[in-house]
Write a structure and sequence with these properties.
It is built from 19 helices and 19 strands. It is an alpha/beta fold. The termini are far apart. The relative contact order is 0.07.
């Protein structure tokens, strides 16, 4: 059995002639199957070019007719145009068309009118559908692969929300992977997934977009120092933010993920897209939080989902403070049992402060590396799950009373520098999040959080350097006053817990935190030393520096302790 495909322009008289001849053949031959493709005059040339390129045919006019051998896998065999089809029908079936030219023109006009009506109906039906436009950048990432199924199934944005998925990738070497992802997404056959579009133009990808999941990562090569890496990240995300500000939906929600400086990159987006609310930009901290929960769960032999209210504060892929003081565990097999909602404090159940202060923190530093070493490749499934659960909570609200970690623009909470992007404790409501502002923190924890804030500010100085001013050398009289002041206020010695009397954590010569200031819950990853103010000032033009510095967040001074 054969199926003939007849394609042509709606206003083409020769298409009308071939179409009616095919109708006669179908009427007289029971096994003769036809399929018609009608394109508007504007659509025809591009469609014809793509079809011929795909099949390797040489044809440049309307109609285009080919035969598909259904019993042989549907391979297409080109017949040609209207004249070739006429000869084919006469030679094989003894049937030919005797249609006059006037009738051909009349039918072609009717075909064009019918095509216009059908197109208008299709556009009207499409207008009734209001899909949520979701864009994943760096769509060749394995993380994107694991996310698509969950998003398309309706688990994230709801079972009644249709999805238009845009996969952005601008690396030609990775386009085959993205095309494969699109094909597999279509094969899922989920009714909520209305379309999957591959975009190589970032402006098109962001036009009218409602949700953006940024998986962009700038590779840090061996010959690239940290400042150059941060600067390159800043340039990329400045461009992303400006385009979002220009073409995205006004209430677009953006989540930044990956192994890069996500706090830094999220801040750059907020500065570059001033017309979009700052609370619509967040950085993913859930993966670090899940690592910490999984380690505790392994220690207590419980499901990691049973560990709740564990928090990660600070610079998500830099220095963080892991807070277990409020964490609780459900389902622990201990002496006291209770219903599913019953929970016990983690600190009481672990009952080993030394382990929490040492081995626990050290294991978190190498948790990701251990997983990837066992897998032999990057860990992607857990990263995708962290992102989709954040989006689910953000869109639908989280469980009552639960708190999570999220990188958000700080508004001076906990005396932290204003406008920095900082991982803070939040709870989700439908479509929004809210920072918990009333948690009690110990003084040592506050010192650590302040130091992390200074670390984040130093990262931003790469893009927004502070103004440089020459400091006059101290006079002999000033030196005597300083000595006298030190004696009065005790600033020549260290305060408790390794802090100096002015409230700052003790640091070594290159600005790294001293091992003496480490305390429960702090994880310090090594960062490269920053240049001094003098070096920075000499390397910057004074005028440009002052203008750029206006965008930098102001530092919050650390309060000084009272004199004894």
């Amino acid at each position: 059995m054969a199926k003939f495909v007849i394609a042509g322009k709606a206003d083409c008289p020769y298409y009308a002639k071939a179409e009616l001849l095919a109708d006669d053949l179908k009427t007289n031959l029971p096994d003769f199957k036809i399929h018609k493709i009608v394109k508007t005059p504007d659509e025809w040339q591009n469609w014809l070019s793509e079809m011929c390129t795909h099949h390797g045919w040489m044809h440049n006019k309307s109609p285009l007719i080919w035969r598909e051998l259904v019993d042989r896998g549907g391979k297409g065999m080109l017949i040609g145009g209207a004249n070739e089809f006429q000869e084919y029908a006469k030679g094989y079936y003894g049937i030919q068309s005797k249609m006059a030219s006037s009738d051909m023109k009349k039918v072609s006009g009717e075909n064009l009118d019918t095509k216009r009506v059908i197109t208008e109906e299709e556009e009207y039906v499409k207008s009734l559908s209001k899909p949520l436009h979701v864009c994943i950048t760096h769509a060749s990432s394995p993380v994107a692969y694991y996310m698509v199924n969950v998003i398309a199934r309706g688990d994230v944005f709801g079972k009644e929300t249709e999805i238009s998925l845009r996969l952005f990738n601008d690396d030609e070497n990775e386009m085959k992977m993205v095309e494969g992802l699109k094909m597999e997404a279509v094969d899922l056959a989920y009714p909520l997934l209305k379309e999957v579009i591959i975009e190589t133009d970032i402006k098109k990808a962001f036009t009218g977009i409602h949700v953006v999941i940024m998986l962009d990562e700038i590779e840090k090569t061996e010959d690239m120092d940290r400042k150059d890496w941060l600067r390159k990240n800043g340039e990329v995300f400045t461009s992303r933010g400006e385009i979002l500000d220009e073409v995205a939906h006004r209430d677009v929600k953006v989540i930044v993920a990956g192994n890069g400086p996500v706090n830094h990159n999220t801040y750059i987006l907020t500065v570059s897209a001033p017309s979009i609310p700052r609370q619509n930009f967040v950085a993913q901290a859930r993966l670090r939080e899940n690592y910490a929960k999984a380690t505790i769960a392994k220690r207590l032999a419980v499901n990691s989902a049973g560990v709740v209210d564990l928090l990660v504060w600070g610079n998500i892929n830099g220095t963080t403070y892991t807070d277990v003081s409020r964490a609780r565990v459900h389902g622990y097999d201990g002496a006291i049992w209770g219903p599913p909602f019953y929970s016990r404090p983690i600190i009481d159940m672990v009952h080993d402060n030394k382990w929490l202060e040492t081995e626990y923190l050290e294991s978190l530093k190498t948790h990701q590396e251990s997983i990837e070493g066992a897998l032999g490749h990057t860990s992607s499934m857990s990263a995708a799950a962290a992102l989709t659960t954040i989006l689910t909570d953000w869109w639908n609200g989280s469980a009552e009373g639960r708190i999570y970690s999220l990188g958000v623009v700080c508004e001076g909470w906990y005396d932290l520098p204003d406008s920095l992007v900082y991982a803070l404790p939040v709870k989700f409501q439908k479509g929004t999040w809210e920072v918990l502002q009333d948690l009690d923190l110990e003084d040592t924890v506050k010192i650590k959080l302040q130091e992390i804030g200074r670390e984040l500010q130093k990262e931003l100085y790469v893009m927004f350097p502070p103004p440089f001013t020459e400091t006059p050398p101290p006079s002999e009289e000033d030196g005597e006053k300083d000595d006298e002041k030190k004696k009065v206020f005790g600033q020549d010695g260290e305060g408790p817990d390794g802090a100096t009397a002015d409230g700052e954590a003790k640091t070594d010569e290159v600005g790294e935190i001293s091992s003496e200031t480490r305390h429960l819950g702090t994880i310090k990853e090594e960062i490269e030393p920053e240049s001094t103010d003098t070096e920075r000032g000499k390397s910057q033009n004074a005028t440009d520096t002052e203008e750029a510095a206006s965008n930098a967040p102001a530092a919050t001074p650390t309060p000084q302790p009272e004199a004894e």
